[in-house]
Write a structure and sequence with these properties.
The complex is a heterodimer of chains A (590) and B (287). Chain A is of the alpha/beta class and 590 residues long. Chain A contains 19 helices and 30 strands. The radius of gyration of chain A is 27 Å and the shape is flat. Classes of the chains: A alpha/beta (590), B mainly alpha (287).
């Protein structure tokens, strides 16, 4: 491995900007770190270069631990976004800088310089000053300068950011050629997905300091695991669908899913499906669709962009309209589907704005996320509305590109026996001394998890994770991983041993390690582990009281345990709680 | 239409798109003449109207020669001290953030604002043999007040803000990216300083040096207290000029004034020349 990052964490004023990132980059690989601004990608690059220290974790280059090695001894080359050329030196002096520092002989320096200038196609520019070159040429000089001392690793920090489109493409090609010719391991940081697709052998996508997913560009595009990647990498429509015994249902009919979850579900549940704009078909009528029926719509917007036509289509059958969460580049929760068509399709069936069309789905991909949607539940409309506008909930829903719906359920007030329409996704209620009954009531009526939210709760800085029995582990970890991708917080699994001396200690330690390795292997989530002793409810309460801004995710498979032993914990009104229920072997619901 | 008419007319009449060149240029010439050129010309003409023998006698007298040595020598030393320590001050203010930075930044300008006589009195109080610092220095056998050292200290004080204020913006312009780039390429801190930072700030340092030097040569108020004005020893040329004036020897004063004028002019011209030579060497024609 050329570059190995092991649990890199970097904090600024306490908040992690790079959060537990582990990564292996192979020899000669072109790796692209992609993410929005502020995702921590540049900080990570600077940490690899040695310009920024890390608070935790190790960095190795070609098997050599360089965590505490100064930047100038790491043997890397770095290209900056603003070129960072030495303006008082000629091109030749710029390129030879690293060689001069190393006291290389003048004749050898000149030879190396000529070779580098040829590599970046700038022969004969030796005597120019940077101010006499265009932006693209300056960046070529910067690349040549970074390569002069034959570094083992080349790092590029948004190198094309300041250039116009045509020069950018040209330089992109040059860099790819240079990289292939030298076979040098390269890491490029960018926020431009097109650039990532054009250059990368592998892409790693970062958001909120975490490395969310990594893989080959085509795999990430076809089978993203998270909402963020699905919408950040190319355009995507996120649609709520139902996973039933018949398959994935959007609208009414089961649709062929591309994802791995093609197995029929034991229990109907809500899932999030990714519909790529090019996978949506439009036709004049249902009979003429060649793919699965999705719904009816009207064309709202038409945009012609070269090879493709882009349309925004509003779903008009109300039930389905409610399911469309959002499209990639609009944060408004409108039921607008983004569709692209080729010129060929456009000629076969031209449409105009306002025209009614029938929509079909060629294929879709189901996200493995267990958090599909949020429903703010309360006994009165005003309460439900207030709850749905809670800052933490709004932030979560915004980042997850999902919507918060409200639901008024008078029965909630008494938690009486009633038979309402089943719940789906995460039910959100405000904290309440009697919460335990409400939680039980909601879980038994279809809610996959219940979030108890105190008023004006801030975004958590620390998420505590605990499950009451092993059969709840899988679901709890899945929910935790999904949640943690959307908040910038530290994840801690709390293992709790009964106070019976040494007897259960090995078992407890094993549980901790299992939890950690499963989180890492299945969800790519780095969590810390801590061990506590004594009564579970008391220990968790103690930890929650210890520090502010904590959220507890509690997994449970037997609801009666919750009602009998955790009523006190659930009645706390200070910190948010997320109760995840995974029914055990014997379902409790009649 | 209007645009074409304007385009046809403008370059012929005015060298800039902005109107009012004639007015502003006229004002500039008038102002410069009234304030600077005419008084200087009067000085030269007055010096020229004296007898040649008197002129030579005044200008090359032992006392005058000693005063030139002290005036220009001490100014040079003071400007050199400012070159080093003014740079360090500017560096500290630009590169580090610490409590009280704003206050120190404001203190830099104080010598600008203070009447120079006040600075002179203050310095004398501190550096006189029974003063706070002078007392200890005297124990070490160093006498500051009423020697050339005192003169130099006074000139350093009044020149300091010129140096700091010219170097500060230049230093702020050195992007940290440049240092990072150099460090990654293998340069040590000292190498980065010598090869990257210094070349960028040297022009500003030269300007600051020239300003501090020019200011020091012309200084009068703060020096007269701490220098003691002993002929041949601690008498600077401006003091000598004043002495001539007090004796109603206007021609002598003008003659000395002319000498100061020409030496200062030569000095500034040399520094300017050095700067443009550097610019042509480093920044090239592209700028």
């Amino acid at each position: 491995m050329s570059i190995t990052l092991d649990q890199i964490t970097k904090r600024y004023q306490g908040a992690p900007v790079v959060n537990d990132v582990s990564l292996d980059i192979g020899d000669g690989e072109f790796f692209v770190l992609l993410g929005p601004s502020g995702s921590g990608k540049s900080t990570l690059l600077r940490a690899i270069a040695g310009l920024t220290g890390v608070d935790h974790g190790r960095i190795s280059l070609h098997g050599r631990d360089v965590t505490h090695v100064a930047a100038r001894r790491r043997g890397v080359g770095l290209v900056f976004q603003n070129y960072a050329l030495f303006r008082h030196m000629t091109v030749a002096d710029n390129i030879e800088f690293a060689l001069r520092v190393r006291r290389m002989k003048a004749s050898l320096r000149r030879e190396r310089r000529k070779e580098l200038l040829r590599l970046v196609a700038l022969e004969g520019m030796d005597a120019r000053l940077p101010s006499q070159l265009s932006g693209g040429q300056q960046q070529r000089v910067a690349v040549a300068r970074a390569l002069a001392h034959k570094p083992e690793v080349l790092l590029l920090d948004e190198p094309f950011g300041a250039l116009d489109a045509k020069i950018r493409e040209e330089l992109r090609r040059t860099i790819r050629e240079v990289q292939r010719e030298l076979g040098i391991t390269t890491v490029l940081v960018t926020h431009d997905q097109e650039e990532a697709f054009a250059l990368a052998d592998r892409i790693g996508i970062m958001n909120l300091g975490r490395l969310l997913e990594l893989g080959r560009p085509e795999d990430l595009y076809a089978r993203p695991a998270t909402r963020f990647v699905a919408t950040f990498l190319g355009a995507a429509n996120l649609v709520l669908a139902r996973h039933t015994a018949r398959g994935i249902c959007v609208g009414g009919d089961p649709v062929t899913a591309l994802g791995s979850t093609s197995t029929p579900a034991a229990r109907d549940h809500e899932v999030v499906a990714v519909l790529r704009p090019e996978d949506i078909e439009i036709a004049p009528s249902r009979e003429e669709l060649r793919s699965n029926f999705l719904g009816l719509g009207t064309v709202e917007q038409l945009l012609f962009v070269g090879a493709n036509e882009r349309l925004r289509v509003r779903l008009i059958n109300a039930a389905d309209a409610d399911q469309v969460v959002t499209s990639a580049d609009s944060n408004t929760a409108e039921a607008l589907l983004e569709v692209t068509r080729t010129q060929h399709d456009r000629r076969n069936y031209p449409v105009t704005v306002g025209q009614a069309v029938t929509l079909g789905v060629r294929r879709l991909h189901v996200l493995a996320t267990p958090l599909s949607s949020f429903t703010a539940c309360a006994a009165s409309e005003a309460q439900a509305l207030a709850l749905s506008e809670e800052p933490l909930l709004v932030q979560l829903a915004g980042r997850m590109k999902t919507r918060v719906s409200t639901r008024v359920e008078p029965a909630l007030a008494q938690a009486v026996e009633a038979d309402p329409a089943p719940f789906a996704g995460v039910a959100v209620i405000s904290t309440d001394p009697q919460a335990v009954n409400t939680v039980q009531w909601l879980l038994l009526r279809g809610a996959e998890a219940v979030l108890l939210l105190p008023p004006q709760a801030p975004s958590p800085a620390r998420v505590l994770i605990h499950w009451l029995d092993e059969s709840a582990r899988r679901a709890t970890l899945a929910v935790s991983a999904s949640l943690l991708r959307h908040v910038s917080a530290e994840a801690v699994y709390v293992g709790i041993l009964a106070d019976d001396g040494e007897a259960s200690r090995p078992e407890g330690m094993r549980a901790l390690l299992d939890a950690r390795s499963e989180a890492q292997a299945v969800h790519g989530l780095e969590i810390r582990t801590e061990l506590g002793f004594g009564d579970v409810a008391q220990e968790l309460t103690r930890r929650l009281t210890e520090a502010p801004n904590q959220l507890l995710i509690l997994g449970v498979s037997d609801i009666s345990v919750l009602t009998e032993r955790f009523a006190a914990l659930l009645s706390r009104t200070e910190s948010p709680l997320l109760i995840v229920w995974q029914p055990g072997d014997r379902p409790q619901q009649a | 239409m209007a645009a074409r008419a304007a385009a046809g007319k403008v370059p012929l009449v005015e060298p800039s798109i902005l109107p009012g060149f004639g007015l502003t240029f006229g004002f500039t010439t008038f102002f410069l003449s009234a304030i600077v050129l005419i008084p200087l010309a009067a000085l030269v003409s007055m010096a020229a109207s004296s007898h040649w023998d008197d002129f030579v006698h005044t200008v090359f007298s032992e006392r005058a020669l000693a005063s030139y040595r002290l005036s220009f020598g001490a100014s040079l030393v003071a400007a050199s001290i400012n070159l080093v320590f003014g740079f360090i001050l500017a560096w500290t203010l630009v590169r580090y953030d610490f409590p009280g930075r704003k206050l120190i930044d404001a203190l830099i300008d104080l010598p600008f604002a203070l009447p120079t006589a006040v600075s002179g009195i203050a310095l004398t109080t501190v550096f006189a043999q029974n003063g706070w610092l002078g007392h200890y220095l005297a124990l070490g056998g160093i006498k500051v007040a009423y020697t050339w050292i005192g003169v130099t200290i006074a000139l350093t004080l009044i020149g300091m803000p010129f140096m700091v204020r010219t170097v500060q913006p230049a230093l702020a312009e050195v992007q940290s990216d440049l240092e990072d780039a150099a460090e990654i390429l293998g340069a040590s801190r000292f190498y980065v300083f010598r090869r990257i930072i210094l070349p960028i700030v040297v022009p500003a340092m030269l300007t600051g040096f020239a300003l501090a030097f020019a200011r020091a040569v012309g200084e009068y108020g703060s020096v007269i207290f701490i220098a003691g004005n002993l002929p041949f020893k601690t008498e600077i040329t401006p003091v000598l000029i004043v002495i001539h004036l007090e004796e109603y020897d206007y021609h002598g004063a003008a003659a000395l004034g002319c000498v100061m004028l020409s030496i200062s002019f030569l000095g500034l011209w040399a520094i300017n020349h050095l700067q443009s030579w550097r610019r042509s060497r480093f920044a090239g024609a592209g700028r």
